[in-house]
Amino acid sequence: MERPAISLRLSVVLKIISSLSKAEMLEFALNDTYAQAVDNARLSRNLQEVENLKDAQNKWRVYRDAECRAEADDNACLVNMTKQRIEALKAMYFKVAATPPGFIK
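and the corresponding structure tokens:
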């Protein structure tokens, strides 16, 4: 009896996902990337750097929203700026050391 309920929930989720715009899907991706960046920063950086990341992300969102409101095609602006921010967060907080600490090349 559980299969119809699971199938129904899945169909609802798929409808929601298919109704999202590209900007909305990227916003979800940004939120996930940011959360992972904060987790990574907590493991490898001091508390002040983690707080700086949080502050920078909040300020970046304000800047992005203001910048895109001024654009003729604000949706394209949101898509482009959000993609760039995701890549920037990955570059800053997802780096894997080529040589583990303590190892000699």
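(Above: one complete record from the training split.) The first helix runs from residue 2 to 19.
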